[in-house]
Amino acid sequence: MNISAWAIKNPIPSILLFLMLTLVGLGSYRAMKVQDFPDIELPMVTVSASLEGAAPEQVETEVVRKMENALASLSQVKHIYATASDGEASVFVEFELEKPVSEAVDDVRDALNRIRSDLPADMHDPVISRVNTSGRPILTYSVSSAQMDEQDMSWYVDNDVTKALLAVPGVGKVARIGGVEREVRVEINPEKLIALHVSAADVSRRIKQVQQESSGGKTDLGGAEQALRTLATVATVDELAAMDVALPDGRHFRLDQLASVRDGQAEPSSIALLDGKPVIAFDITRTKGSSEIDVARGVRAAVERLNAQHGNAQIVEAFNMVEPVQENFTGSMNLLYEGALLAVLVVWWFLRDLRATLVSTAALPLSVIPTFIGMHYFGFTLNTVTLLALALVVGILVDDAIVEIENIVRHLHQGKSPYQAAIEATEEIGLAVVATTFTLVSVFLPTAFMDGIPGKFFKQFGWTAALAVLASLVVARLLTPMMAAYFLRPAPQQDHDSKLMTRYLGWVGWCLHHRIVTILGALAFFIASLLLIPLLPKGFVPAADRGQTQVTIELPPSSTLQQTRAAAEAAQQIVMQVADVKHVFTAVGRGAGGDMFSGGGGADIHKANLTLSLTHRSERARKQQAVEAELREKLQALPGVRVTVGTGDTGEKLVLALKGDDAAALAQASQNVERDLRGIPGLGNITSSASLVRPEVIIRPDYARMAALGVTSAAIGETVRVATAGDYSAALAKLNLPQRQVPIRVLMPAEARQRLDMLERLPVPARDGATVMLANVADIVINSGSAQISRMDRSRDILINVELNGHELGEVVAVVDKLPSLQALPAGVIRAESGDAEEMQKLFASFGLAMLTGTLCVYVVLVLLFKDFLQPLTILVAIPLSIGGAFVALLLTKNSFSMPSLIGLLMLMGIVTKNSILLVEYAIVARRDHGMTRFDALVDACNKRARPILMTTIAMGAGMLPIAMGFGVDPSFRTPMATAVIGGLITSTLLSLLVVPVVFTYVDDALAKVKRLL
Predict the structure, then answer these.
(1) Residue 694 in contact with residue 170, Cβ under 8 Å?
(2) How big is the CA angle at 420 (ends 938 and 346), to the nearest 5 degrees?
(3) What's the pLDDT tens digit per position in 181-200?
(4) What's the pLDDT tens digit per position in 141-182?
(5) How far apart are the C-alpha atoms of 489 and 858, rounded to whole Å?
(6) Most exposed residue of 148, 212, 264, 535, measured as fewest CB within 10 angstroms of its CB?
C-alpha cells in the first residue's frame, strides 16, 4: 500500500495527526528539564569511615584492608580504590556497568555488616553512598555583614540560610565554606592537673557523665502514669563553670578552678576569600533529576527574600556553574535555528520555487517537535548530549522531504498536475526514502548501547537522533506529499539538462568505460586516507572552554591553616595579574572542585582551591588552554607548593597509576617516572599522589614500666588525645540551647600544646586511682610518617597526574609509553590502567563495535528492502570514500581524532549510504520497469538522482556549518564532529557519484555469474 497516496487522497487524518503531535510535542518540550549533562546512575559506591585519632598506617591496617578483603569477594567488582588518612578511611568500589546500582549499594552494605565486629569498636559506623553525576556544586554564595561577627554569620548560614534553601525544589545540599563552629572551650590548666594528679581524660569524662539528660522508668501518680526523666544539664557557660567535678580519688572541685571555661569557637578548618577579601561562603548542590537552571532560579529568589528579611546580612553570588549551562542551551537552540535556516536556503537555491521550499521547510519543525514526545517518554532532558544530537541531525531531517519534493517538482516539469505528480513521484521514490531513513536509524541506534561510561551518556544521543530521523520519515511519507499535491502549482516543462549535468553525465560515461582505472583511483584514495591516520593527533575528549578554571595548591602536610592561607593569597595575587582573569574565589581547607564525580574536597588544611572566572571566550583572543598555560608559568614562582591548574575534567590530564605491595620500591619507581616525565617538553605540572612525609611526635610506651605502675596503652592514648585535641566528637558533652547543641571540648591551651616538656609531664591514670607522668612510662621522640596512603585493588598505589597543557592525550600517551622508567619497572611494581587513557581505549573499542554493528545493520536493512544480497554491497562502497575527506578536514583544521570525530564518522556512515541508495535504487527500477540497458539505466539514475543527492548533501553541510565554525556555544566538542562530517560529505558525494555506478556494474557481473552457475 502506498501510504503517501492514501495521505494525498485523505488529507484530513494527516493534518489532525500532525496537529496533535505538535501540541503534545510542545507540551513535552515545556515539561523537559534543562541540564548540563544527563544524570546517570553509575554502579559506583563510596564508603567513608571515621576512626578519630588514628594515623594513616593504623587506618590502613585496622580498617581499609579489612574492608577491601570483604568487598573484593562481591560479584562484578571492577576496581577498589581506597585512601587512608588521619582518622579517615575512604573506599571507592567500582562495579561493572551491568550491575544495578541499588544492588551494588546493598551488596556493599551487607559485606561491611558481616565484618563490623572485626573493625575497631570505637570506629563510627561506615557511611555508604552511591555516586551520581549531580554531586558538583552549581552555585557559590558569599555572606557579609557589618553587624554580625564571624560566629553569628556562620550560624546564620547553618540555620536560616540552609533551612530556606533546602526548601527550594531541587536543592540537595548546602555546604558552608569558611566561618567557625561555636564551641565551649574548657582549657584545662596543665600545672593544676599535674599538681592534683588528674588527667585531662578524667575531666572530660566527668563532665560527660554529669552534663546529660536521661529518660527511663515510669510511676503512677494521681491515678495517671507519669514518665521519669533525669535532667542534669546546665543552660549557660557560667553554670558549667560553677559545676562541681568529682575526681577519681573522691575529691571534687569547681570546673573553673581547674580550667578556663568560655563560650568560644572551634579551631577553624577552612577559610573563604573572594578576590582576596575574607568571606563566609556556601555551595549549592542540586538533587538528581533536577534542572540546574530551575534550581538556580529558585535559589536566587530565596536569596532575595533572605536579603530582604535580614537586612544586617548580605548574600552575594560569588561563582556559578549555571551560566555555562544556560549558554549551552540557548546557543544550541540558536544553532538549531541557524542550521535549519541554512538548509532551507539551500533548498530554495536549488528549486527556486517558494511553495516547494515552504513544503520542505515544514519538515523541520514537524520532525523536531514530535521528537520531544519520545524524549520525554524515555525520561531524557535537554542537555549537552540531546541538544548535540538535534543540532547535528537538523540537516538530515529535511533530507527525506527534499528527496520527495525534488522528485515531485521533476514530475511537475514533465507537464503533470501537482496531484498526479505527487502520487507518481512519491510512489517512485518511496523505497529509497524508507531505505535511507532506516539506514540512518541503523547507524545512530547502536550508539545507545555502547559499553563503558561514554555509552551511558550516549544512550540519549543515539535515541534522540533515531527518534528525530523516524519522525522525519513520517513527515516525508505523509505530510510532504499531501502538502505538495494541494499547495504546489503546475510548472513549465523542461526537456534539457543543464550544462553542469551534461558535463557530469559525460564523466559518468567515461568512468563506466574505464572501470579499472576508476576502481584503482578509488582504491588509491582509500589507501591514502588510511595513511593520514598516523598524522592525526589522537585524543579522548577535547578540553572545554567555558570561561571557568581552577588552581589547586598543596603545601607540605605539616603546614598550618594560616600558612596555607598565605600561600593561597600569594597565588591569588599572581593569578589576578593574568589579563583574562576576572574574579577569584578561594577556598582554603575545603572547596568545590575535582572531577565530575566529586562533590568537593574534604577538610584538608594544607590544600587550597582557587576558582577562576575568566572573560567570555568571545571577549578574548586566546583559548582557555592558553590562559591556563600562562597561569602554570606564572605560578612556578610560588615556593614550596604543588600547583595544579584546571578542573580535572576529561581531556585535561593523563593519569599514570603504579601499584605494588612494596612501599619503598613503589615510591622509588614513582620518583623515576616523575623524573622522566619532567624531561618531556611542553607538558604542564606533574604531581604525584605519593604522600609527602610529615613530622610526627611518636610516643613509644615502655611495657615493663607500664606493667609495674598499672598503666595501659589505651590510657596513654586517651590522655594524649584529650589533652591535645579533645575527645572524640561523639563522646563530647553538649550544652543544650533552644535551637542547637554546642559541644564542650576539654583540652590544654594552645601555648601548652606547643611545648614538648608539658606533654611529657601529662598525668596518666594508673593503678588504684593514682597517676604517673607520661615521661615515666613512655619515650617521646620526633619522627616522620605518611600523611596519606592510597590503594588500588588491595595494593598500595601512586597516581601521577600529568597536565596535558594543550597537547592531545593520545600524543602524550605515545611518548610516555616509551619512557625508560616505565619500560623497566622494578619487581613487584606494575602499571595499572587508569583515568582518561583507559577510557580512551574503551571508547575507541566501543565506537569500533558500534560502527561495525551499524554497518551490519545497514546491510541487513538494505537486504530486506532490496531483496538482494549483493547490490547492498554497492551501496556500502560510499563509506570508505568518506573517510579521506573527514581525515583531511580534521588535519587542515588541526582537530584531533577523538570522541567527537568518531561520532562524526559514525554519522557519515548513515549519511553517505543515502547517496548510493538513491542511485542504485533508481538504476534497478529503470532496468526492471523501463527495460533499459545497464549502461543507460545507470546514466539515467545519475541524471535523475544527482540533483537530490547534491541538495541533501549541501543542506546537511549547511546545517552543520555554524557548528563547524564554532558559532554560539563552546566549540571544543562540537567543531571536530561537524568538521569530520562536512569533510566526509564532500569527498563521498563527489566520488560516489562516479564510483558507485562502476561498482554497480562489477556487482551486477558477479550476480550474473552466480546465476549462470546456479
Answers:
(1) no
(2) 60
(3) 888 888 888 888 888 888 88
(4) 989 888 888 888 889 998 899 999 999 999 988 989 888 888
(5) 37
(6) 535
Provide the angle, in degrees to the nearest 10, between the axes of the packed helices 399-412 and 480-487.
Answer: 30
- Cα–Cα distance for residue pair 402/418, rounded to 1 Å: 16
Q: Which residue has the cell 583572543?
A: 621
CB 7 within 8 A of CB 14: yes
Cell of 848: 569500533
Opening angle at CA 584, ends 582 and 587, nearest 5:
170
- Identify the DSSP state of 538: B
Give the max Cα distance, the chain. 120
Phi, psi of 77 (to 5 degrees): -80, 130
Q: Which secondary structure element, helix H or strand E, spans residue 848, and what is its range?
A: helix 835-866
Sign of CA dihedral 1009, 1012, 1013, 1014: positive
- Cα–Cα distances (Å) from 770 to 249, 422, 474, 627, 711, in that order, read 8, 107, 92, 66, 10
Q: CA distances (Å), 925 to each of 410, 522, 580, 583, 934, in order?
A: 17, 26, 63, 67, 11
Print burial letters for 786-806: b (CB count within 10 Å at least 16), e (below 16): bbbbbbbbebbbbbbbbbbbb
In sequence order, the β-bridge partners of residue 797 are 659
The C-alpha R_g of the chain, in whole angstroms, comes to: 36
Distance CA 878, CA 993 (A): 9
178 CB-near residues (< 8 Å, 6+ apart): 268, 270, 271, 272, 278, 279, 280, 281, 587, 588
> How far apart, in whole angstroms, are the C-alpha atoms of residue 855 and residue 241?
81
How far apart are the C-alpha atoms of 829 and 821, rounded to whole Å?
Answer: 11
pTM: 0.79
What is the distance between the alpha carbons of residues 777 and 454, in angstroms, rounded to a whole number? 60
- Residue 747 dihedral angles phi and psi, to the nearest 5°: -165, 170
Nearest Cα neighbor of 285 from 383, 381, 165, 382 is: 165
Nearest to 176 by CA among 155, 152, 147, 145: 155
Q: What string of DSSP letters covers 627-679?
A: HHHHHHHHHTTSTT-EEEES---TTSEEEEEEEES-HHHHHHHHHHHHHHHTT
Strands 741-747 and 182-188: parallel
